[in-house]
Amino acid sequence: MAIFSGFCLMQPLAACVVGYEKPDIALEIPANYRNGPRQPDAALPALDWWRGFRSRELTRLIEAAQTDNLDIAAAVARIAQADAQVRVSGAPLLPAVGANASASRSRTSTSSSSTALGRGSPESSLYNANLSASYEIDFWGKNRATLLASEENAIASRFDRDVVALTAMAAVANTYFQILNAQDRLRIARENLTAATRVLTLIRQRFLAGTASQLDVAQQQSLVATQRAAIPPLEITLRQNAAALAVLIGRAPENFSVRGGGMAAIRVPPVTPGLPSDLLNQRPDVRTAEAQLAAANFSVEAARAAFFPSIQLTGQRGFQSAALAALFGPGAWYYTVAASLAQPMFDGFLRLGQLEIQQGRQQELVQAYRKAVLSAFSDVEQALIAVEQQMRRERLQGEVVRAAREAFELSEQRLREGNVDLVTVLNTQQTLFQAQDTLAQIRFARLQAIVGLFQGLGGGWPPLGEGPPVSQ
Questions:
Q1: Sequence-ordered alpha helix ranges (H) in 210-283
Q2: Neighbours of 3 (CB within 10 A)
Q3: In whole angstroms, what is the distance from residue 428 CA to residue 421 CA?
Q4: Nearest Cα to 190, choosing from 407, 438, 442, 437?
Q5: Cβ distance 460 to 46 under 8 Å?
Q6: Rounded-to-integer distance, Cα 435 and Cα 423, Å
Q7: pLDDT given at position 126
Q8: DSSP code string of 74-86
Q9: How is 354-390 classified by DSSP, letter by letter?
């Protein structure tokens, strides 16, 4: 039909195409990390970075979180909403076509003059069938800019899903390491309790022999009780983190258990940060901020285009007849075509206010983008500092534990021989017990620092020659 062909021909003329260029934002991008290694690309994190810890259970838990984590599922649902909004925003760029059919029957008053004189029947029928179409010519690009803004928001929702997924995987790793830390500290606490009980037995033997006092026995009993009281809080930490880990992988805590083992079996993977400029593509939160800024730019274009006239085309073609049998006859068809132009003259500064809102939103997102970039640099720097210093701290604390164990073993041996001050035995016990517990906590802090570095770098990086991963 000619009317609909005309609407189709208007499509190439429908809009002054709106373009978006990446905003030129003043950013201070350092050439390298202050606390990074000399070869920043020596060991870039792989996409499956969690496998570097060489723990099958951790790998299984993180892969379960990727499919069953409820926060990730909610983020995927937000992607579906954003995609639907793209379709909604794109609808004004296409003609609206509808089919209509109607039938009516009416009766006029029998006292009217035409009926009284026999000139017509008091009853009449009218049948109508038509196709109608309407289309707004997007000459100024308002609808096109609205569509592009929605598309950028849909892209942002995908990067937001990556942010949620990375956060969930890091939470699974940290919670799992917290469980291992609690298991290690429980094992140390029980070993220390056994050692303290053994020393208490020796002191009681000396007391019975008259070479130790009741005060010596009471002091050692206090130490034994202290070690026994340290166990319940560690049990709480272990069980509560197991319950929290179950939620992270979408399981009920009652039907979930963790084998764990200890942090000694966890391998600390080597990782280098690359260059700071790589974060602009690797960090999903930075990409989210960039896409949101692009959407705001298009929203400003749409608000500016709203000041110009809107051009509307409408058309209708169909058949109309007083008799149903003659509805599609040669004389029953009709058509109407109309064009209208509407120019806002005064709207109480409504459009101006809407434009200023979008411009303010744009400026807000410019600063949010800058902050996201600088925060990414800061996160990596802090993680690099933590990894370096926690590794050094673990080495030094290991020396403390070795020296404390040697001192305790010597004091216990001399206690058996009966030629050592009991205060010395008590002090060496407390020093060793505290040193061992501190070492376990430092190992946990080092693993946390490694996970923080992976998270700060945006997770894993694709192989050389491939682009950054984008969720579909």
A1: 214-229, 231-248, 279-282
A2: 17
A3: 11
A4: 437
A5: yes
A6: 18
A7: 86
A8: HHHHHHHHHHHHH
A9: HHHHHHHHHHHHHHHHHHHHHHHHHHHHHHHHHHHHH
pTM for the complete prediction? 0.86
Structure tokens belonging to residue 16: 């002054």
- Residue type (1 letter), 74: A
In whole angstroms, give the CA distance from residue 305 to residue 303.
Answer: 6
Per this entry, what is the length of the chain? 472
Q: What number of CA atoms fall less than 13 Å from residue 417's CA on the CB side?
A: 9
> Which H or E element spans position 104?
strand 96-107
Mean pLDDT confidence for 416-445: 91
Least confident of 43-47, 67-71, 104-108, 396-400: 104-108
Amino acid at the residue 37: P
> In the structure encoding, which two tokens stand for residue 220, read together?
């050692």
Over residues 137-159, the mean pLDDT reads 95
Sign of the alpha-carbon dihedral angle for 374, 376, 381, 383:
positive
Residues contacting residue 318 through CB under 8 Å, at least 6 positions apart? 100, 128, 129, 130, 131, 333, 334, 335
Question: Strands 123-137 and 96-107, how do they pair?
Answer: antiparallel
* 456, 382 Cβ separation under 8 angstroms: yes
CB 384 within 8 A of CB 404: no
- Nearest-angstrom CA–CA distance, 126 and 104: 5
CA distances from 174 to 297, 449, 471 (A): 38, 10, 24
Residue 343's identity, in one-letter code, is: Q
CA–CA separation, 104 and 323 (whole Å): 11
State the Cα–Cα distance between residues 445 and 394, nearest whole angstrom: 9
Q: Is the pLDDT of residue 11 over 50?
A: no
DSSP type of residue 138: -
